[in-house]
């Protein structure tokens, strides 16, 4: 640590040494006293020291952050949960350059139960701290309106803004309106509905909004049986209709066992510079809230780090106090009183799979939208991903891939395909006929074609690719490197080999291969280029073999080209048989006019 600090900011050493072994939040400031990074820590001293201990082994982005640190400040807190909340609040307040950017800046609506006599229930995007109850926010506005409509159908409430104090009602100040006459309100303004009955409706609506539909249904069922027992069948039927509405809504929402109650579900999809976290709140097996948060990575944060930040932000935003959180993997922080569950089977696993499917669909939709606005967005994202996955120092905007093709050593050829900005550039595709190698020697063939290709680019002063892909393992890769060394190009571009058996990625002078995720975009692009080079080489090889199989005696006949040449040889097997064929046999094979030309060539002019 001392070496790194002396090299960059030696005055930070006493600050780092004086940090306590306590949970807290640390803030990095630049020379202009601006906050450039905020982080949380279980142990402040260990966490902050880690930035300076092995500076050469950390990523380039983190090195840039460390070199900009002019001052360090910290806040000690009691618990890890306090550190999470404080970090989240400071990031949102100061938006430091190197922190994850929370891209979701929308104002989502809430359901408000107004703090007033005979409370109104309505949607709003403005939260006013006046004692009113707010539920949400609802990322799915349709779900919110469905809930409100269900509540209105079950429990008719007023929607006017009258001040329904006891004094105003008893003085006869108000008259019932049209809403009362059409059945949407029970007329509390003229004491047609008692306050106790209205408040019981509000209490039931609170439970429905919270997702406690089972309890409300049980109360309605008891009330229906009570009316039926008193032979008040009309009232019992009215309650039965409410139960049917509630069951209909619940049947649309229930996705798992109703015994799964008060659970938060989180899943994450991280690719390239963006990450997406999906949140679902489940009450009694019913999903009552769904939201997806987009995050912009800054320092190659791990999925676990991103998930911890997202869980804190989303639970704070949605005011969730669920005691259980279902996640795909354990985050790097635990919270007191909270149980993290990583399900393997069962209904909770189904919920996690549903959340993962949602986050994946959301990510694909966002990518489509970005591509519509910016057609080059996908190409840049793919190149950024490849640069990171392949440990490159520059974007692979220009890539070339080589492949050999021969059948038992016959007609050996090779092919090179070119991708620019993530797309095939077919004008740059090249075929090579092997000139200096005899027999099936893939290594020598690869050495020849790589030398010829880049010797020509150097002679013509054309730009060189940032990435070269060789179809094959260490042997083919070593052969390619020999040619690059002869040309003085070693180290001037990234060179890799891809072996077919397990799709291993080999680097020069690296004994152990690298394995990319089978679903990664980087591996898909490499495989696409390898397959394209193979296809292009096979097509050229086939043409050479076909050309070699043609008889020069037939191609000399006026009007007989390669196609008719092949057709005659396929039918008669040899020139000798064609020579002895009758006029009728020739005409039946290639037509009357052409057949006559061939017959006359062999029988009239060359008896």
Task: Give your account of this protein's structure.
With 607 residues, the chain is α+β, with helices and mostly antiparallel strands. The protein folds into five domains: 2-99, GIY-YIG endonuclease (3-Layer(aba) Sandwich); 110-253, no CATH class; 263-371, Nucleotidyltransferase, domain 5 (2-Layer Sandwich); 388-545, UvrC, RNAse H endonuclease domain (Nucleotidyltransferase, domain 5); 550-605, DNA polymerase, domain 1, CATH 1.10.150. Helices cover 46% and strands 18% of the residues. It is built from 22 helices and 19 strands. The strands form four sheets. Strands 13, 14, 15, 16, 17, 18 and 19 form a seven-stranded mixed beta sheet that branches. Strands 4-10-9-8-11-12 form a six-stranded mixed beta sheet. Strands 2-1-3 form a three-stranded antiparallel beta sheet. Strand 9 and strand 10 (286-296) form a beta hairpin. Helix 10 runs antiparallel to helix 11 and helix 21 runs antiparallel to helix 22 (592-605). The longest helix has 29 residues, at 521-549.
Short précis:
With 607 residues, this protein is of the alpha+beta class. The chain contains 22 helices and 19 strands. It has five domains: 98 residues, GIY-YIG endonuclease; 144 residues, no CATH class; 109 residues, Nucleotidyltransferase, domain 5; 158 residues, 2-Layer Sandwich (Nucleotidyltransferase, domain 5); 56 residues, Orthogonal Bundle (DNA polymerase, domain 1), CATH 1.10.150.
């Amino acid at each position: 640590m001392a070496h790194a600090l002396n090299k960059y900011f030696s005055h930070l050493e006493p600050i780092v040494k004086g940090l306590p072994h306590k949970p807290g939040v640390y803030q990095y400031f630049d020379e202009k006293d601006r906050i450039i990074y905020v982080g949380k820590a279980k142990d402040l001293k260990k966490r902050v020291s880690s930035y300076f201990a092995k500076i050469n082994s950390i990523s380039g982005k983190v090195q840039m952050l460390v070199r900009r640190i002019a001052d360090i400040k910290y806040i000690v807190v009691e618990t890890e949960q306090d550190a999470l909340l404080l970090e989240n609040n400071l990031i949102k307040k100061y938006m430091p350059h190197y922190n994850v950017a929370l891209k979701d800046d929308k104002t989502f609506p809430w359901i408000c139960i107004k703090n007033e006599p005979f409370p109104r229930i309505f949607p709003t995007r403005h939260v006013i701290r006046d004692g009113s109850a707010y539920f949400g926010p609802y990322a799915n506005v349709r779900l919110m309106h469905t809930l409100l409509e269900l509540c209105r159908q079950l429990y008719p409430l007023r929607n006017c803004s009258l001040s329904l104090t006891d004094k105003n009602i008893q003085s006869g100040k108000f008259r019932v309106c049209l809403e009362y006459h059409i059945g949407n309100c029970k007329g509390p303004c003229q004491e047609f509905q008692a306050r106790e009955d209205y408040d019981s409706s509000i209490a039931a609506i609170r439970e429905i909004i919270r997702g406690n539909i089972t309890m409300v249904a049980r109360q309605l069922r008891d009330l229906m049986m009570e009316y039926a027992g008193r032979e008040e069948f009309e009232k019992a039927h009215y309650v039965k209709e409410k139960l049917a509405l509630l069951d209909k809504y619940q049947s649309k929402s229930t996705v798992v066992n109703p015994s799964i109650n008060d659970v938060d579900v989180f899943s994450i999809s991280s690719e390239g510079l963006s990450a997406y976290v999906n949140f679902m709140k489940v009450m009694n097996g019913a999903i009552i809230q769904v939201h997806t948060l987009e995050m912009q990575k800054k320092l190659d944060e791990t999925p676990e780090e991103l998930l911890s930040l997202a869980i804190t932000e989303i639970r704070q935003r949605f005011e969730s106090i669920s005691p259980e959180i279902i996640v795909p993997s354990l985050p790097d922080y635990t919270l007191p009183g909270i149980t993290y569950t990583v399900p393997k089977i069962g209904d909770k696993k189904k919920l996690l799979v549903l959340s993962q499917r949602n986050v994946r669909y959301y990510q694909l939709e966002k990518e489509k939208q970005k591509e519509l606005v910016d057609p080059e967005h996908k190409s840049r994202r793919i190149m950024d991903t490849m640069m990171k996955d392949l440990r490159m120092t520059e974007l692979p905007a220009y890539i070339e891939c080589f492949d050999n093709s021969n059948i038992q050593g016959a007609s050996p050829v090779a092919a090179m395909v070119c991708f620019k900005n993530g797309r095939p550039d077919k004008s740059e595709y090249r075929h090579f006929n092997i000139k200096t190698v005899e027999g099936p020697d893939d290594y020598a063939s690869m050495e020849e074609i790589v030398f010829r290709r880049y010797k020509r680019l150097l002679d013509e002063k054309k730009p060189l690719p940032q990435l070269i892909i060789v179809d094959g393992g260490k042997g083919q890769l070593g052969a390619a490197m020999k040619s690059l060394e002869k040309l003085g190009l070693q180290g001037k571009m990234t060179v890799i080999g891809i072996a077919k058996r397990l799709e291993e990625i080999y680097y020069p002078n690296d004994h152990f291969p690298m394995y990319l995720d089978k679903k990664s975009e980087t591996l898909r692009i490499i495989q696409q280029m390898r397959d394209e080079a193979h296809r292009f080489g096979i097509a050229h090889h086939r043409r050479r073999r076909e050309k070699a199989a043609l008889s020069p005696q037939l191609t000399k006949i006026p009007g007989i080209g390669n196609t008719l040449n092949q057709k005659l040889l396929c039918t008669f097997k040899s020139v000798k048989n064609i020579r002895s064929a009758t006029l009728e046999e020739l005409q039946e094979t290639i037509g009357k006019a052409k057949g006559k030309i061939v017959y006359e060539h062999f029988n009239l002019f060359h008896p």
